[in-house]
Amino acid sequence: MIAIERISHRYRSASTAALDAITLDVGRGSLFGLLGPNGAGKTTLISLIAGLIAPQQGQIRVSAQTLSDFRRARPNAIALVPQDYAFYPMLTVTENLAFFAGVQGLDRHQQKARSSEAIRFARLESVARQLAGELSGGLRRRLNLAIGLLGDPALLLLDEPTVGVDPQSRHFLLDAIRDLRDAGKTVIYTSHYMDEVEAICDRIAIIDHGRVLASGTLAEVLGAGESQLLLRLDRDLPQPLLKRWEAAHTVTTQGANSICLTPVPAAALPQILRDLAAHGLTPLALNHGQQNLEQVFMHLTRRSLRD
Ligand SMILES: Nc1ncnc2c1ncn2[C@@H]1O[C@H](COP(=O)(O)OP(=O)(O)OP(=O)(O)O)[C@@H](O)[C@H]1O
Question: Which residues form the ABC transporter domain (predicted)?
């Protein structure tokens, strides 16, 4: 549905580009996760897709049209649910929805129908008459989402929709996002939370410093990581063995007597076990396999998602 072709963007006051020749394809009806640490360029990218800022280089095509032609033909088809709360705290939930439905140019009948539908979908019935500024963090996020749904968008852009919410609302929001995808909407979703992205997204892209480091299905991106061996031993690793392993692997300490070796192809396991036996060490726990998304991310960026 969306083809992002070599999009670059540099803010006026910035010395480096926020986006540097980003190319991505997002299929119709898919749930696409954009992962990256602070400052990676996620918000800039979805602001470009939403048409809030104009691309300086490259182009975005939606349903085979240029973004501006698509937006002109279907002004409400792309909705952005921003990171910040985008409603009036002094208005009630219902008044906010009525106001934003009006902004979207819906007629009276549509305003009523779409507001009721958004309240129902976000399960805001019990707080419909409450001031938005008095809602809990989770309910505010749900109101943000409800406002984004008023125009019945085909493409929904969600910028960190679960930041600062309680576990129950987080669960609700993730289920709701999945339901939107199941109803045929295309959803692009940015997050710091690996577990969320692993749980709900069909495809993901890891971005950092404005570049795509990996993209594809979860299995494809995980496949780009290295195999690793996590070991918990009955005592400290002796220096000679550490030196020997460091010649073939990256060895990191993970806590008392726990270490992680990467890369460790399956064929290297028998020798590692022989090394342990030769030094009189007993593995208390041993876990060999693929890295998870967090580890792949660290491997690709050399930093944690929450730096
Ligand atoms: N209005 C602006 N003017 C100048 N530089 C900006 C502006 N907005 C963002 N940037 C810079 O552009 C880069 C990308 O920022 P962006 O907000 O897109 O990242 P992000 O991945 O969404 O980060 P976060 O998770 O913190 O929201 C950063 O280096 C940021 O400092």
Answer: 2-234
